Protein 1
Amino acid sequence: MKNYTIDIKNRSQSSDERYNIAFKRVKRIKGFYVHILVYVLVNIFLISSSISREELEGGFNFNPRLFSTPIFWGIGLVAHGLSVFGRNLFFGSNWEEKKIQEFMHKEEATKWE
């Protein structure tokens, strides 16, 4: 029985290169969190300024235009989040290597049954 290991990524990066990659990743994550903060603050202001005192006293009438900005901006926010976290969301950094090992172990196990 052979033990196969596959090195998918080049692991011989210098510490400076790894630092630069990590620094850029942290900046992207920070940018996403700032985007969330601006989204929440601006939409709270827009929605609260759109609701007049008469609407609060007489009951709230649903106005679809009131929620169009949060909805469409929210779609953009989700896209931003997927661009920052998405590549590791479904397929982690070692996903391919783990799947290859899993299939090889399954095939080896079925060979002996």
Note: The helical segments are 15-50, 53-58, 68-85, 95-111.
Protein 2
Amino acid sequence: MVPDLLTRARRYRWLIFWILAFGYILVYFHRLCPAVLALDIMRDLKTSGALTGFMAAAYFYPYAAMQLPAGLLSDSWGPRNTIALFFCAAFIGSLILGMSDTIFWAIIGRAMVGLGVAMLFVPTMKILAEWFHIREFAFMTGILLAMGGLGSLSAAMPLVWLSSWIGWRFSFVIVGIFTLILAILVRIFVRDRPADMGWPSPTGSAPSTGAPRAGLVEGIRTVLTCPWFWPLAGWFFFDCGIFFSFGGLWGGPYLMQIYGLSKAESGKILSMLAVGLIVGSPLLSFLSTVVFRARKPVIVLSCIIVLCLTGVLAFYTAQVSTTGLYLLYLGFGMFSSSIVVIGFTTAKELFPVQIAGTATGLINLFPITGGAIFQPLLGFFLERQGRMGDAFTLAGYKQAFLVLFLSGIVALGASLFIKETMVRENT
């Protein structure tokens, strides 16, 4: 009877995983869609680059603020309840964003979306830790991030087509409806742990009761007093600040204003961010787990590549060939975005599973805060150099991308101090 129940648990966990993975598609869509729509929104709402950057970053402020509550709620109230409720908030936010007629309401709607989808990633990490063995965790996280790549892909050419057909406003309304459907599916089918269905754990560990063995304050103290937490956090902040500011907002206007590409042509190149994420997430997981059998070398190597990419942007801003642009965006997708799968695996391996939600929530504060700060920061530097008509100047983009290059240097420095954690699996 027990083997039969274990088989059922192993099968059912895939239904749970794919529901959550499709939710993560929506998370990444919402995160990166301003890159395609930025100029349309600026024109329709009659706003500046700095305010547009703030509107795009409004997703990240509540997202960052909710990472600690996400971890605490995952460890106490449960991932399933947390995701379902907050995805309903994202649905409402998407409707407000789509119907906004001023930048104020666009910011409110974007912030509500960020608030709602903030509660997907950390609870999902908690669920994966309960349903999948530690040896499977990096691979499953890689697949999850690859699904985020599909969300990034949908925020490129498919969004170009959809917004050209029905406008950017109704596009957000439709996405909001899909968000509501996902909330319903999570509530009906997802379970926090196998024990909730009376099944043994496929992880091979003793069944979890769901009650945290450490108090919430104690869990926070354990994470924040760990000296190895901070280099990882610093790396996350600068690496993801680079990706979210470039890939999530200003990479689209850059193609249209510096290279004179149409929105459709820019969408094709922006799609390479998604391709890099889709390919890179499982690839980097494979390199880490099978080839290097280590986490740190893969992170450091990715930092070196990202530094080279930001160097191209900063010093050869208007001199990249079309093929080079495709490769540039592919590189950012692979080595500045999909690399986070190794970062989150490292964070998980630093701490016991009982505080997995708290640890993931705290570490996830830093990449999201990076995006929240860097998107309007780059908008500020673009505005400071003035405009030629409605377009930002080449000097503005050079200055903004120099910020990314300097951030790449700091990210590389932080990566050198990250602790290697994979040895814990071999003990």
Note: Strands lie at 387-388, 391-392.
Protein 3
Amino acid sequence: MAKIMINLSLRRLYFYKTNNLVKSYPIAIGKPATPTPTGHWKIIAKMKHPGGILGSRWLGLDIPNGPYGIHGTPHPWTIGKSISHGCVRMYNQEVEELFPQVNVGNSVIILSSWQNGEETPPHAEPDPGQPSVNPGNSSTKTYIVQSGDTLWAIAKRYNVSLDELIRINHISNPDILKVGQKLIIP
């Protein structure tokens, strides 16, 4: 299944098929007054030739208070900048390349940065809220933090000690979790 991950700090979109990175693309993101919302979203609409500022293709997302989407642009000089009203802009030829490879219902994960602080993308994250086996250690799982999650609730859900969850994830302030943050579940 296809999946998109977006790193806002790097201004890059990463396209995955069956958890394998296929290609990455430079993007433009929301300006500080109208930032691109982080979180786990789904593609809910696809449109060819939407016109105007949307360029040649539109991939609508289920982000509340939208519309928000991934789209082309008639202004290619904006790519790489923080300039939109919250949407993700791509070069027209690149959104045209991506468009036929994604479907309504595919996941789009928007993160402010990779949690590991590296500039290379991680393997595609599991669907939100679903633990997955950590490939480096078959006895651990990972979990992607969702809006409203607390460490206490996650520890309870997976029947693990709160102290162990804090220790294994090197969490300095257990009161602060970020949507999209990846946690190791011991």
Note: DSSP finds three helices and 13 strands in the chain.
Protein 4
Amino acid sequence: MLRIHRLRIHSALALTACVWLGCDSSATAPAATNPDPNAGRTLISACGLVTQAEAEAIIGKPVLSMKEDTSGGTASLGAKYITNCAILSSLEPGAILPTRLSVTAFTTGGLQPLFHLTVPVYFANLKTATSAATRDSVADVGAEAFWQKRPGKLSLYKQDVYADISYSLTGKVIDTSASAKAACIAAGMKAAEKI
């Protein structure tokens, strides 16, 4: 009891000294920093998650274009929360479409007002809805990631950002090959570094 009484006296003396002598406002405690720079953001740049140089290293040839589309979302709700980055390279011999690396991303800030979900909850729901036979867990990519075998894409999340990554050497919409999986994982690792 005596100890608490002394603590109150010391606190009162410190406050009195501050009032009489003036306190240095710069000596206040540092503001808490948010460990997630994307917290609260409605949109995130999908093209900012994989650079042109990184895409070229993954694809193995020069990138001809990187186009970001920010029109994704729910038209009926009048909201945009999804961004997509289409990264295209040259045609492979015999292919009709160019080599394609695609990154789609959204944040809790964009998702929650529309669907009342956070990115981690969305990811958990997606994982539960995807049968274990059609997915492979992928270690060391973001907080958690898995390869969806049938659509041929990597789904990952870290903090408040979710991303889907797909790759096709021949530009096909669905590429479930081992090389597509490896390219998606390499791109996913680069994306997770930036989240």
Note: The CA atoms of residues 63 and 89 lie 5 Å apart.
